[in-house]
Amino acid sequence: MSTVRCVGGLVHDTGGRLLLIRRGHAPSAGLWSVPGGRVEDGESDAAAVVREVAEETGLTVRAGAFVGTVLRGKYEIFDYACALTGGTLTPGDDAADARWVDAAGFAALDEAGELVPLLTETLAGWDVLPRG
């Protein structure tokens, strides 16, 4: 099975909250994750993560350092730290909702089973969980 290259944006605000979107479509429709999606033909990872964050959240970011990779079925996702540069938080594209979550909010979503599988463990391993 060949994989589909995807990107994810790890965006924290100045208070340490993490940007999450509620997925509007499969895979994992209805669950919360970081914004991201497929890399289009000829597109760099940096351009893809900037585009995907804007499409799903209305926010503009600058792509930064590569953080890690996860494999979700046929999707190979390359996650990047991103710096918020502007915009207004508004869910769009295939995001049913978008919000900033602090550590307590993230833990509540995790306890309720509302996060995509292994998100907590992955972000904890990369030391990029929300703070505050």
TrEMBL record:
Requisite cofactors: Mg(2+)
UniProt GO MF annotations: hydrolase activity
UniProt keywords, alphabetically: Hydrolase
Superkingdom field: Bacteria
Annotated ranges, domain Nudix hydrolase: 2-123
Family per similarity comment: Belongs to the Nudix hydrolase family.
Protein name, per record: NUDIX hydrolase
Source organism of the structure: Amycolatopsis antarctica
